[in-house]
Write a structure and sequence with these properties.
CATH topology of chain A: ABC transporter involved in vitamin B12 uptake, BtuC
Shape of chain A: globular
Low-confidence stretches of chain B: 1-5
CATH class of chain B: Alpha Beta
Helix content of chain A: over 70%
Number of domains of chain B: 1
Order of helices and strands of chain A: HHHHHHEHHHHHHHEHHH
Radius of gyration of chain B: 19 Å
Low-confidence stretches of chain A: none
Strand order of the largest sheet of chain A: 1-2
Structural class of chain A: mainly alpha
Strand content of chain B: 25-35%
Number of helices of chain B: 10
Number of strands of chain A: 2
Number of domains of chain A: 1
Largest sheet of chain B: 6 strands, mixed
Strand order of the largest sheet of chain B: 6-9-10-3-11-12
Oligomer: heterodimer
Largest interface: A-B, 29 and 32 residues
Shape of chain B: globular
Radius of gyration of chain A: 22 Å
CATH class of chain A: Mainly Alpha
CATH superfamily of chain B: P-loop containing nucleotide triphosphate hydrolases
Strand content of chain A: under 5%
Distance between the termini of chain A: 25 Å
CATH architecture of chain A: Orthogonal Bundle
Mean pLDDT of chain A: 90
Mean pLDDT of chain B: 88
Number of helices of chain A: 16
Helix content of chain B: 25-40%
Chain lengths: 394, 264
């Protein structure tokens, strides 16, 4: 058993998961060269992360919706509408940020539950129910902004979510030109990843489950650590970690944990894989549908907040086509339309791939019409890749 | 095994009646299953065998009649309720989630929790995987790893997982609906061996099947239903040809052991 064979075997078995990372890496490498390094400059990377933020949040929620064999078309305008509500709450009702954010998130959950009421309790197909939502929230967004037009948000704390960075540790003399908080975050990330990998490997060995060789394991540890460390280093050289990145990281960690470690996550995938079997096993398909759409509504609200904070205003067209970007990101990230398959990390990568394409092509000055066509090819290629690797898997 | 438990049948269904609109699907059926017995249930289409088993597994509530488990009267609000009381059903289409692995399917809906975080239960993976491994080992089921996704298994292996799941939680009774219907000849052998294995380990089993040779191979006793009534209840004996001839005669209505009762 040589090391090379081991790498080959691991690649073959996990080609679907690693495929996305390889694609993302290739896209980064291509744009880095094509833009003379501009694409990977700290300033642009921060910009890229902040652009990806609201789409990634929506894509994660959408992943779970598609996993349980539904779809949600209403999330774009729902995000726009709730962003406008947040702006109105601060500007016209003079509510503090600390109240506005939970309030808007709560409204998001309510909106999601309205959808799941139609889907789970009334049996309306999600496509139709959420198309109604798409129309309704679009109208609602225009209605609340019609007298004012674009609402400028003067609140610095709120706008920081979309534009500012985590604070630096004051009065330190080591590495004065680097952003220390960001480096600490990076280090923490590496430590957490490494310990969980090592513990997991030890457990699998104890249970006599086949594990990749030690060299392979170390290679993976080094590669991921280098990736996390590299990103942290680049960001620390500029202004550090943006608040948007922090929000997205928290959402990713929470949803990754729920989907992979908890009973709720297991039940979501069981419902997606075989709803009848899940029901017979005592899993309430209705309850799971309520939970998943509720979470989608909450994440829509969060996306609306991120977007409004980034623009420092609520516009009359906020959220237009976000739902399709989120769906595309989820599919690029390996979600299956048949249900039951798709991961949180995959959707995050999918969202990064799609925004990287837009961002990179913008830097290269490529015409917007070509941009759409390129993204069309990437989406189609990702799904074709997914379908063919699945087939050979059988 | 306790002497007391030996005396009372594990399941007794008395005078079960069930209608759907104008159709009388069950016209007063009695069924008894003894401890450690494998009972076959056959009948033509619409004879009522699936309806009877759906009554026993909690999917239907009977119009009339009573069910006794170990001599105690029992009633089931839904399939989950019946499962909690020890009635496990193995469905014809296996009722597995193909996107999940073997261990996840065995523990589907009964995940073991290691830690409770508010409404979120953190699953105990090592325990569930180990238990699944032990289960497969005990039943001599040939599956390489409990981490294998069900979509990668053959039809016979899937049926084995479905049966293993039914036995995982100390069921009193295991009902199998057409366990060999969609399988290759080799896979049928494996499943029938598995049934024998379960009997050796003390399980009580009811098998619905169209395949009389399977019934003949593994069952101790056979009940034939026809038009919602029991027409035969006899031990499995003779050679396969006589057995087949006799059973078919009951199925098409040429013979009926309980004829007077229905007239009365």
């Amino acid at each position: 058993m040589s090391f090379i064979e081991d790498v080959g075997k691991l690649l073959r078995e996990n080609i679907r998961e690693y495929g996305m990372f390889i694609a993302l890496f290739a896209i980064f490498a291509f744009f880095a060269v094509a833009t003379d390094g501009l694409f990977v400059s700290p300033r642009n990377l921060v910009n890229l992360v902040n652009q990806t933020g609201y789409i990634a949040v929506l894509a994660i929620g959408m992943t779970l919706v598609i996993v349980i064999r539904h779809i949600d078309l209403s999330v774009g305008f729902l995000a726009g509408f709730l962003g406008a509500i947040a702006a109105i709450a601060m500007v016209q009702w003079n509510l503090p940020v600390i109240v506005v954010i939970p309030f808007v998130l709560f409204l998001g959950i309510l909106a999601g539950r309205l959808t799941s009421f139609m889907v789970a309790d009334l049996g309306i197909p999600a496509f139709v129910a959420t198309l109604a939502g798409w129309l309704g929230y679009r109208g609602a967004l225009q209605l609340v902004t019609t007298s004012t037009g674009t609402i400028v948000i003067p609140n610095a704390a709120f706008n920081a979510i979309g534009n500012d960075f985590v604070p630096e540790i004051p009065y330190t003399w080591i590495m004065p030109e680097m952003h220390k908080t960001t480096l600490i975050f990076g280090l923490l990330g590496i430590v957490i990843f490494a310990t969980s990998e090592i513990i997991n490997r030890a457990r699998m060995q104890r249970q006599n489950i086949e594990v990749p060789s030690k060299a392979m394991c170390i290679l993976k540890l080094v590669a991921v650590s280098a990736l996390i460390g590299g990103i942290a280093w680049i960001l620390a050289g500029y202004r550090g970690l943006s608040w948007t990145a922090v929000v997205v990281l928290i959402v990713v960690m929470v949803y990754h944990f729920i989907t992979t470690k908890t009973v709720l996550g297991r039940h979501i995938y069981a419902v997606g894989g075989n709803p009848e079997a899940a029901e017979l096993s005592g899993i309430s398909v209705k309850k799971i549908t309520h939970v998943v759409f509720g979470s989608m509504g909450m994440l829509s609200a969060l996306a609306g907040i991120l977007f409004a904070a980034r623009l420092q205003s609520a516009t009359t067209t906020a959220g237009t086509l976000f739902e399709l970007d989120a769906i595309a990101a989820a599919f690029v990230g390996g979600v299956s339309a048949a249900g039951g398959v798709g991961t949180v990390i995959g959707s995050l990568i999918g969202a990064l791939v799609m925004t990287s394409l837009t961002n990179g092509m913008n830097l290269m000055g490529i015409d917007i019409s070509y941009q759409y066509i390129v993204r069309a090819f990437v989406l189609a290629a990702a799904v074709i890749f997914d379908v063919t690797t699945r087939r050979t898997g059988n | 095994m306790e002497i007391a438990a030996e005396k009372k049948p594990v399941v007794e269904m008395r005078n079960i009646k069930k209608h759907f609109g104008a159709v009388q699907a069950l016209r007063g059926v009695d069924l008894t299953l003894h401890h450690n017995e494998v009972l076959g249930l056959v009948g033509d289409n619409a004879a009522g065998k699936s309806t009877l088993m759906k009554v026993l597994s909690g999917a239907y509530i009977p119009d009339e009649g009573e069910i006794l488990l170990d001599g105690e009267r029992a009633s089931f609000a839904n399939p989950m309720d019946a499962r909690r009381q020890g009635i496990e059903m193995v469905y014809q289409d296996y009722a597995l989630a193909n996107n999940l692995d073997v261990a996840a399917n065995v523990f589907m809906g009964r995940e073991v929790v290691r830690l409770k975080l508010g409404p979120l239960g953190v699953m105990n993976f090592p325990y569930m995987e180990q238990e699944t491994q032990n289960l497969l080992h005990r039943l001599k089921i040939d599956i390489a790893s409990v981490h294998q996704k069900v979509e990668r298994l053959s039809g016979g292996q899937r049926q084995a997982v479905a049966i293993a799941r039914a036995t995982a939680f100390d069921a009193m009774v295991i009902i199998m609906d057409e366990p060999t219907a969609a399988l290759s000849v080799a896979a049928i052998d494996k499943v029938l061996e598995l049934v024998c294995q379960l009997k050796e380990q003390g399980s009580s089993i009811i098998i619905i099947s169209h395949r009389l040779e399977d019934i003949f191979r593994v069952c101790d006793r056979l009940i034939v239903l026809r038009q919602g009534r029991k027409v035969s209840d006899t031990p499995v004996q003779d050679d396969i040809h006589e057995f087949r001839e006799r059973v078919v005669a009951y199925m098409i209505g040429a013979r009926d052991d309980f004829a007077e009762k229905s007239v009365a």
